[in-house]
Amino acid sequence: MLTEEKVREILGEIEDPILHKPLKETGGILEIKVKEEKNHVSVKVAIAKTGTAEQIQMQSNIVNRLKNAGAATVGIRFAQLPDEVIERFRPEGIESEFEKLLKNTAIIAVASGKGGVGKSTVSVNLAVSLARMGRKVGLLDADIYGFSVPDMMGIVDRPVVRGEKIIPVDRFGVKVMSMAFFVEDNSPVIWRGPMLGKMLNNFFREVEWGDLDYLFLDLPPGTGDVALDVHQMLPACKEIIVTTPHPTSAFVAARAGTMALKTNHEILGVIENMSYFESRTTGKKEYVFGKGGGKKLAEELGVPLLGQIPLEQPYWDDEEFAPSVYQIDHPIGKIYFKIAEKIDDLIMEKEKN
Ligand SMILES: Nc1ncnc2c1ncn2[C@@H]1O[C@H](COP(=O)(O)OP(=O)(O)OP(=O)(O)O)[C@@H](O)[C@H]1O
């Protein structure tokens, strides 16, 4: 008759197929139950990667060994080891999904000083424009309290969970993840700093982003905890600063820029939003929110002014309703496309050097 101790001893010697360490070292034995009357053993083990061919091999190895030791029947459940355990045991040369993402993807945080200047609108439209160019693009709505990306893109679907990973929602060819997907009925998120950092971490590590050329992060406005977390978590992250032409907006945005520079993050450039209103009938431009804020900010930070976006709403399209996505043939859609091309050139240039 098999005892729990004996089962533990047998399982303990079996190696995690990815980490090549025995389960007794990885802490991968989660549960052992022995039903004496039926001589049935059921176990739950955690391994570095579930759903692989190696898991199936390991499963038959466990069954064989336990049956050889006297079990009549064996039941096995698999779970995923926590990321921190995997990191501790990861053999040299094997990259985590997160490391791969950091290495192969241009991560671009879109920041602003003041709220309401159009940071989310800019993030969404840059992501969509790069996807229109044929790039593989992700967009993480890191504005955890003030999430708005899914609504702006007209997303009604919710992400699905596959294995241990969350699959982002695809919209206009962009893989989107947002806190909005995890709260009900637009209720407020009432969290403190550390929880926000943890959520951000989950968004990077537990979302199946796949291969991406670009991952845009729509940061919360200002220089708070989340912006700081992003800078610390993603050392290679680049930044785009959004401002309106108003001097105050540019003055406050400069602080977000300074924060990026102080934490050694490169700023790709400045985008001035709500730059002017252009009359359809006369073609006359009116500088409703003042003039020159974007140019001044770009000069101050020593970076290019990537573009100026006038005031206008997208065309409303009943079939593909997305309140803040400018169509490809919309005058503003064309401006975004040009800015996206500039960003792509800048990134390609840097890759070459
Ligand atoms: N160029 C534009 N023309 C007209 N409306 C615009 C333009 N850009 C943004 N808006 C509108 O301005 C409002 C604020 O934009 P958005 O939510 O993108 O700003 P934000 O800086 O991300 O705000 P928050 O601080 O809430 O994150 C939205 O209603 C948006 O539709």
TrEMBL record:
Stored SUPFAM superfamilies: Fe-S cluster assembly (FSCA) domain-like, P-loop containing nucleoside triphosphate hydrolases
Keyword set includes Transmembrane helix: no
Coiled-coil features, chain-numbered ranges: none
GO molecular function, one term: ATP-dependent FeS chaperone activity
Annotated binding of ATP, by residue: 113-120
The organism's place on the tree of life at top rank: Bacteria
GO biological process: iron-sulfur cluster assembly
InterPro entries found in the cross-reference section: FSCA_dom_sf (IPR034904), Mrp/NBP35_ATP-bd (IPR019591), NUBPL-like (IPR044304), P-loop_NTPase (IPR027417), YlxH/NBP35 (IPR033756)
Keywords: ATP-binding, Hydrolase, Iron, Iron-sulfur, Metal-binding, Nucleotide-binding
Signal peptide (from-to): none
Known function: Binds and transfers iron-sulfur (Fe-S) clusters to target apoproteins. Can hydrolyze ATP.
Subunit structure as annotated in this protein's UniProt entry: Homodimer.
Similarity section: Belongs to the Mrp/NBP35 ATP-binding proteins family.
Protein name from the UniProt record: Iron-sulfur cluster carrier protein
Upper lineage: Bacteria, Bacillati, Bacillota, Bacilli, Bacillales
